[in-house]
Amino acid sequence: MPLSPSTFRLTSVEQPASYPGLPSMTLHARTIQERHSKILQQMASQQLDTLVVYADKEHGGNFEYLTGFIPRFEEALLVLHRNGKAVLVLGNENLKLAQHSRIPADVVHAPWFSLPNQPMDTDLTLKEVLRSAGLTDQKRVGIAGWKLFTSNSEDNKSLFDIPTFIFQAIQSALGTDTLLLNATDVFISPWFGARTVNNANEIAHYEYGANLASSAALTALNAVEAGKTEKEIAALLAADGQLNNVVTIAATGERFENANLYPSDKQIQRGDKFSLTVSYKGGLTSRAAYVVNNADELEPEVQDYLDVVAIPYYHAVVSWLEYIKVGVKGHEIYDLIERVLPKAEYHWHLNPGHLVADEEWLCSPISPESEILLASGMLLQIDIIPSRKGYAGASIEDTIALADETLRQEIATLYPPLWQRIMARRKYLKNVLNIQLHEDVLPLSNTVGYLRPWLLDKTTALVRSDK
């Protein structure tokens, strides 16, 4: 039966379960070996002699994929040669991390990567340091930053997103006979990037963050009350001391006053718009709604919020959840959302769904005319952002995994507690929210499909009502 907005209603439901205090899941040595092999295979397919992987705190995912760490407040390079030999180029305060790299690697010191006014104890130039890392006479060298530059108006392989001083030193070390190519796609191309597909160990590793974010978000939502400050709610989103991979949001009323991005001392007022977002490696949870008990407490001009924004948005999310599975093409998801939530009316403009990993946004196979097949092992975030002038937004961003029968059996066998959580989430979606997932769809967030439009009413949520 095709879904329509009339398919959904607001009703009293139990809240989803959450799982605080779960242990982290370490990536096994064999997973790191598999990652190393995948990158070397990608290098071979592009005939790269060497791959230079750039990293800083905000853009460390490709580097961390093999080394296990990011360079925190410095820049770093991983120089990976086609024979598998790796060299880390590190600043002053990350040299000590080289010995902990998940792949065996030599290390050379690049004090230029260090913080301002720290010691520059070297007689070498950066060009000479890079030569000592093996950048000498290669014919084809890839540089991996963090962007794919998918505009059709540019030669994307010749655009680079690393600091000029590093790029110029690489050029100088290699000479004019070397062809330099943007090779970020080795890691994150939605067609073939090594990082877009995860094994059972990686899914277990990332589910920790998805559970953490959604558990914290549910706790914070339950604490929303008039008179509390944004900071009081945001404090509940700080979980297990883990590093957030996006800026945490706990914003009441109008956002960005005085250009502020962060939770403030502003007090929550009844009738306010409210936005909440928290994200860790493997999963983001985001919510947007009103601080009221019911529509009667809204200003008259937005009392139709449920019909104008929340239900149409929820219709789109449920359609997304019930359609997605292994083998669906990216454009099919895009076309589905355009059908049920027309862009011209609801003004969403990003991809309605994207891949996640250590980053909140890795890349996206979902776009107009995309022939990319959604694959077993992909982690996807539901990310549809409607905008209707004058109204609060609506948001229930969360994370799922796609897994074929083989991968599902591996997860169930290797990680029974994780499998039990996944099955409990699927049962909640089916029996409480009446959302029918394909067997390929594994909810990693606890709050998948759970939308409360009235934040002071902790007992009601939207559900599908035709089942």
Report on this model:
With 467 residues, this protein is an alpha+beta fold. The chain folds into two domains: 289 residues, Creatinase/methionine aminopeptidase superfamily (Creatine Amidinohydrolase); 136 residues, Creatine Amidinohydrolase, Chain A, domain 1. Helices cover 29% and strands 16% of the residues. It contains twelve helices and 16 strands. A six-stranded mixed β-sheet has the order 5-4-3-2-6-7, sandwiched between helices. Strands 8-9-10-13 form a four-stranded antiparallel β-sheet. Strands 11-12-14-15 form a four-stranded antiparallel β-sheet. Strand 6, helix 4 and strand 7 form a beta-alpha-beta unit. Helix 3 crosses helix 4, helix 6 crosses helix 11 and helix 8 packs antiparallel against helix 9. The longest helix is centred in the middle third of the chain and has 24 residues. The radius of gyration is 24 Å and the shape is globular. The N and C termini lie close together (10 Å).
